[in-house]
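Design job #97: recover the sequence.
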């Protein structure tokens, strides 16, 4: 499995971030989960191009979760995690740091989608996920936005694009924001 995720939040300091990770989960033997790109900042107007290739080389070895964490950090205790409603209430106290996100998305079939998040939406995300169990060999692409309230109640996100990305195909995403009022 390989997963690329672009995350944008109007309440986070970073305009957007990009993560690239993947795992190998055999029926027998040890599983492996590695991260190649961890929370890389993305700037407004920067274009992100994702291509699905049959083979390639990496610029560096992926890191395990242990290698990414510092030696002083404690293991996360899910038992101590507050309810989602409490976490959302705390997040809603944060000020909005920017206006609505805008996007230009170029699909594998060369369709260009231009859009923006709704005024009440705090986040925009794109995910590209390839899994060996996808029988067609294609990666799943999703561009979607959501509100904090929607996340709290597990409401469906606002889908802007859903595509399948085949070998040799590419997508592009360029992010921006509306001018401040």
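Job complete. Output follows.
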């Amino acid at each position: 499995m390989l997963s690329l995720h672009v995350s944008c939040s109007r309440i986070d300091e970073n305009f957007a971030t990009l993560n690239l990770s993947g795992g190998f989960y055999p029926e027998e033997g040890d599983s492996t989960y590695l991260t190649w790109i961890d929370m890389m900042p993305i700037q407004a107007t920067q274009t992100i191009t994702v291509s699905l290739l049959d083979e390639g080389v990496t610029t560096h070895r992926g890191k395990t979760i242990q290698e990414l964490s510092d030696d002083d950090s404690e293991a996360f205790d899910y038992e101590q995690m507050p309810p989602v409603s409490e976490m959302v209430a705390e997040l809603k106290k944060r000020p909005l740091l920017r206006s609505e996100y805008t996007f230009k998305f170029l699909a594998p079939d060369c369709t260009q989608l231009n859009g923006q998040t709704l005024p009440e939406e705090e986040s925009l995300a794109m995910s590209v996920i390839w899994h060996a169990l996808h029988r067609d060999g294609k990666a799943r692409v999703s561009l979607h936005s959501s509100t904090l309230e929607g996340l709290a109640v597990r409401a469906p996100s606002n889908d802007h694009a859903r595509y399948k990305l085949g070998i040799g195909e590419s997508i592009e995403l360029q992010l921006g924001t509306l001018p401040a009022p």
